[in-house]
Amino acid sequence: MTATTAPAAQTREPSNLFYQTRNRRPVVARAEGIYFWDKDGRRYIDGSSGAMVANIGHSNPRVLAAMRRQMEETTFAYRLHFENEAAETLAKRIAQRAPQGLDRIFFVSGGSEAVESCLKLARQHAVATGQEKRWKVISRFPSYHGATLGALAVTGYTPMTAPFAPMMQEMPKIPAPTCYLDRDNLDWEARGLRYAEMLREEIERQGPESVLAFIMEPVGGASTGALVAPDSYYARVREICDDYGILLILDEVMSGVGRTGRFLASEHWDLRPDIIALSKGFAAGYAPLGAMVADRRLVEPVLDAGGFIHGYTYAGNPLACAAGLAVLEEIESQDLMGNATRMGGLLKGGLCRLMARFPFIGDVRGLGLLLAFEMVADRQTMQPLPKGLNAHSRLVDLAYERGLIIYSRRTRGGIEGDHFLVCPPMIVDEAQVGEILGLLEESLVAFAAEAGLPVSNSAA
Ligand code: PLP
Fold this sequence. Notes:
single chain, four-stranded antiparallel beta sheet, globular, binds pyridoxal-5'-phosphate
């Protein structure tokens, strides 16, 4: 019996809630550290930090205390009526952490809002500086930038975008740098340059005067499964943006705020963007919070020209910002980025060892604790598993039955392919990494037996 169809879930009252499907899940009772417990007392390891959100783990007492202190003062103060210290202090701390000059912070409540804000600031900067013809934002396929229509227009994930195509101004896409799939004679770095040059070709095809920006996830998230480009890619992308005077927007909603072992994933390559989107691990699930971090040279002309025409009611919410500040303090004081690097190394090593036992694991990738593995039918050709196996959902269910939560998507543009993000909170320790790998291995054995896939006897 699977946890998803547990008796408690089947016999529960019908729900008035609805999300993507009618699937029911157990009711959560509490969470602490990397664990959840449901109302029936079953324990689950949060092996994906929810959707790569709960970066510092659950129920951190210092964060809860900071939120309680803020609540005693005020939970809400509308930004047109008051400034608040939590938002001011958090903005200052983010500006200190961001590349020099990116010191203008605009708070939002989630990743889609952060991306929408980046697109709108880029456009308003163009308008304010006499470049009205620039409006196209090139992005990558596959990619994920959010569910609202603006963010969706730059998203490359067919099942999520196709129904809305007539309703949005779809933006040009270039292939994401999926070098691990390429079977050519180029070395890794040469492939990186080849993918970066696709940006130049697309700018030329679109007409350089019409292109406003390029947006990408520096380390891929849900749609590519922690895709990391060759080092050469990042510097060349920056060069091309500069050549054409187009803005580089980095969507660090998933990769930012420490998960890859650096505050921003782009620091791994000294890549300086013009605008950054943050969310998810920013307040780590303690409150809905996101931010646009922008270069002052973009913001000032927009404010001079009459103001930034954009905003959300909950922007700069004191309670959300107090949570974000306490999360940041926790990441810094507990050296959670160092831990993400160390534990990420262990976990990635363990995932690579699983490849020896399970020939259908075709790739292991990622940085820090933003890690994923991909299943394939054949490692030589990287042909995906048959779609009908529904590996992406089946393995997640088998792991869930065993008390391990992982996160999956279809790799090849959402149409086929199966990848799994294994991204526990950054507080995870060595024993817990071992526990995650053990449960994952058991789940993979069960999946292979069901799907009739080969397993080698050697222990991983
Ligand atoms: N950008 C990236 C890279 C994401 O991974 C996500 C969410 O998964 C978003 C944007 C959208 O964030 P949200 O779901 O908070 O709106």
